[in-house]
Known about the structure:
The chain is of the alpha/beta class. 41% of the residues lie in helices and 20% in strands. The protein has 3 domains: 178 residues, Rossmann fold, CATH 3.40.50; 60 residues, Obg-related GTPase Ych/YyaF, coiled-coil domain (DNA polymerase, domain 1); 63 residues, Ubiquitin-like (UB roll) (Roll).
Amino acid sequence: MALQCGIVGLPNVGKSTLFNCLSNAKAQAANFPFCTIEPNVGVITVPDERLIRLAEIDNPKRVVPTTIEIVDIAGLVKGASKGEGLGNKFLANIRNTNAIIHVLRCFENDNITHVDGSIDPVRDKGIIDTELQLKDLETIENRLAKTQKQAVVGGDKQAKRAVEILLQYKAVLEQGLSARTVELEKEDRKLVADLNLLTDKPVLYVCNVDEKSAVTGNEHTRAVEAAIADERAEMLIVAAATEADIAELDEYEERQMFLEEIGLKESGVARLIKAAYKLLDLQTFFTTGADESRAWTFRRGMKAPQTAGIIHTDFERGFIRAEVIKYDDYVALGSEKACRDQGKIGVEGKEYVVQDGDIMHFLFNV
Length: 366
């Protein structure tokens, strides 16, 4: 499933450095492959220790991790919402993504100039937020005129409710807040889903720090944390320049030693990929055996037939049942046969909601 996270940020915040680190297979936990679709889109493997453990147990002929797409989006200038600079391209690219990784500069370095002359990540955040909010406000106002006419002239109940929701969004955006701060019921959200508002997308703020701040952060990261407190957004601290140094090391063991020396258990890139995966509301189920151990991506809340269809459409069309082994049971007992002998294989029907980490075997007939 081709779900994308777009990386955004002002010039000289470390966005390109971070994207290049993500684009380097050596930065990943288990040296899984990386490929590029086009210059600014990377298909990046998701580090998952569970897949490594399953491969150790089954010793398969091949191991296939799950992936996400990361898009390095063109730069932004003030006035982007009015089409200045690369504004139109920037905004269109964001609209095509499912979530946003917003990189903020939280480090001091006199050799790297800042576009506004000083380091202030909260101000930088505000610049991009404002441009996205202005574009969303334009989208809302265009839709309102049409929907209000449907509500009044046609007496359409859904249109009336849509008008109420649009006015909620309008009020929030005019206050300089993002659309994601509006809490809607599932049915209401469906009424306006096609708006695809830029500031309604889930966002992860990545504070790019120097090496000494990689573990505990600094005054800039604390300022960002305070600024996003009411925004329903996540924050991650990463030292992009240090990650670039780690990515240059050839051996996995060398990279782990480097991380330990600076007080980290896991690279910032690995944490970022996992956070992006979660941001997209994705989870993982596994299939494993002598031929292949494989991680499969699914959306949280999907039922067994839908997840079967991710492997092959015939699996969903002819779904009979699913045999499910919990990851912890598989690791503890060491094989599918042992799980079967111990009664640890669940038989589930069409209503089963697949859980993160489930090891699945689908039975179907077409």
